[in-house]
Protein 1
Amino acid sequence: MDKIALEAIRLLFTDGGAGWIVAVLLGLACLHLHRENLRALEARIEETGATATALERASQTNAAVAAALESRTRVLEDLTRLSSEIARGVDRSDERSREKFDEILRRMGEVRLIGRS
């Protein structure tokens, strides 16, 4: 680029002013390159906006999945707790065991419903 600039300056003052033509052509070339650079920057900005939108949507989806997983985890924790209580109740053979088994079956039905949605 430096060589081109030096050559343009030399030609500007030689050959009876023919260098002015070179200077004008160089100016037009610089103007064209500047416009192309602006177009490329605008395209990159638009692409960045599209990427940001996609990341925001993915973040919202991840939050919804996390909430669903947390809900299922709580149900599974309840089932585990109930299973432990039932195991102790079976050892004692009390009537509450049947109630606990019914509650487990009901909650398992809820888990299946949650899993389908």
Protein 2
Amino acid sequence: MTVESMPKTVISWGIGIALLGGILIATAPFLVSGPWWAVNTEEWSLVIGVYEIVMALARALLAPLGAALIGAGLVMKYLDRRLAGERIADRPRRWRFPDRAADHD
């Protein structure tokens, strides 16, 4: 992965993870109540419990992680554009603290 393609890759991953999280939020309740979980044995109730814990964690983490990756990719694109200047005058100006001598005048 090159430095130039990194923001696009991060944004793409963010979109994919956010979509996966959204689909999971929408479909996970239907998957648990489906007919293939209908076996009422002790082993299957343990599987359902583990499945619900994993799905709850995924639903809570995937959508925010996708949004954070999209935001990070956009910041990377912005910083790449700001710092792309060849000459020193093209680069962004940075704020500086005022001189202490100027405060005492």
Protein 3
Amino acid sequence: MAKPRLLLADDHTLIVEAFTKLLEAEFEIVGTVTDGLALLKKAPELKPDVVILDLSMPKLNGMDAGKQLKKILPLTKIIVLTMSEDFEFAAQALRHWASAYLLKKSAGSELIRAIRDVLKGRTYVTPRVARRLLEEFVRDPRPDHEAHLTKRKKEVLQLLAEGHTMRQVAVLLEISTRTVAFHKYQMMQEHGLKTQSDIVLFAIKQRVLAPPA
């Protein structure tokens, strides 16, 4: 019987190597990627059964990459494995595209359990996060607090917040520098952004960039 196929998306090489050693006895690791844009290119080619995804990745964050990937590969299960204990991150991911949410400090056995569960069509949430989700979102549901940014604006915002120049953003997204400038200055005008620090804080607030650990 063929092993379930996994794709690992994390920009920390040592973590990817550790996950590979942990999982390869039971699962087939079909590939690894280190940023969100690479994930969206490689996953449709490999068609994995499960993607294990870090939220804090360069070029395109895990939150937006996961959302886009679910539209491209609706049958692929996506597991979030992150340092972030932001419960709104967890709620948003689980509502829209993730099948499981774990913290990187979870035991290896918990990750294996989560993979087995999502392959059976279940949802898995690490207990610490599950308790807070119950308190914060089930008993007192709240709307998302995001500005209405287009997919392209979110991509531009993340890359600018990461410190890329407008020309570098244009190359990465395969669009013109003029288009990048249009999106940048429109966001700055609409949301009162004046400095690079404002852009970074706005990106964190809009959940396209993870807050510092």
